[in-house]
## 1
Amino acid sequence: MSLVKIGHAELGVRDLDEAAAFYIDVLGFVETAREADRLYLRGVSDTDHHSLILTRAEGPELIHFGWRVDRPEALRELEQRFRRQGRPVRWVSASEEQGQGEALRVHDLCGHPVEFYYSMERVESLARKAHLWRGAVPQWLDHVALFTPHVDAGVTYYQALGLHLSEYVDAEDGSGMFAAWLHRTSSSHDIALVHKPQPGMQHVSFWVANALQVVHVADVVADAGWAACIEFGPGRHKATNSMFIYLRDPSGNRLEFYSEGYWIPDMDAPPIHWTFEDYKREGRLSWGERAPASFFEPIPVRSWT
Ligand SMILES: [Fe+2]
């Protein structure tokens, strides 16, 4: 069994019409489908039915995020593995989520709502339809970053699923890790784990073409009257070597638009190690304005148990 990639995330939004105006009309996400309570969106280079679902909810929330597995039988193998570990699982029937085949939902060791699926309806990539691109031009879902009280356990959990550690930060008191970045693809990370007493979401991140496009995102939201949604950036993280800008959507979900993170040609390359002091001094922010306090507020994650 192997994971292929992190394929999509589902976020809760208070007002679906307002969310559509922000995500589609301003940011340029591509709409695949719309239901009474849900929008199915994708980036211009995505070939899956969706990489982002926006669902009517009480407020900002990570409802689930999904990993594609490499073959259909992997879902039953995962079910058996989790049941042996005494961990509750729930099956999601095919098409309960539009475009997706049957899927297995669990909570990871850190309490985040994780889904595994194999089948997802394919759609046309707009990668070579530049005349249709708009707004921020999100390319694809790059990664999800999570807050957890158990970074070390989370690393062990995802390593058992075939992910590799690319970077990590020592805990301030020297006991284990404060933060970790793990990858399954050749991206610097598909998932990031950062210490916080309670589980939560830090952000979902979409890849954009280059550093200038990261800056262009700021122009796009400002020209549309949404300058106040910029929370942090543009700037550069030294950890993962990425250009970034973070926005809060109208409901309060935190989105990152991101580029220039390095690629990892050797899956067995040793991870980059940060002391807590070095990470605080220059790892989080190589240059740019410092993060506001709001940047460290967790977005709630949904429990289905
Ligand atoms: Fe899903």
## 2
Amino acid sequence: MGDYFQTIVDLDATEQDAARLGAGLLDWLIADGIVSAERTDCVLDNDGYGNAPGPDYAKAVDDPEPVELWSNGLHVATGRTVFDSGQGEAGAATCPLCATEIRLVDDTWCPVDSAWAPFAGRLDAWANGGEGVVECPSCRRPSGIDRWSWEDDYYACGQLGLTFWNWAELTYGFEQEVRRRLGGHRTVTLRGKL
Ligand SMILES: [Zn+2]
């Protein structure tokens, strides 16, 4: 078995406000008892340190079974990050300008090199501070890879992400409250496994 994670990524937070927004969310989650204030060895990223579930963590999830795995914490990541879903492949990407969906895998779910060509290296370029410009194979117009959307939210480019390790599925209401506290920013939720 592996470790499951859910990452709520803020698509609108800027480099300037990501840290403040992340700290504000963490304060709220601690105050509401959803995570513990103390940072302990309980996540699989960020050198292992995060906030373990708090006494009222069940308020955030659909199925409040106790979490017994040691890696059950929250990690708040700030700064330019390409979030991904771990195992598997991205199935398709959608152009932000013409909404054409580009299939990236074949019928056996293997990546298709020719389909990937316009995207090659762009995620790394963006992560390293560049624009990662992709020329859309359909409309031929350029746009930053951070503006493309991905099937099943396989990838998300953002400045702020909250990763919950091995929690039951976060409720719609909880995600809505996160968005409200982010000032109505757009978010996507990645669900993956390591
Ligand atoms: Zn296009």
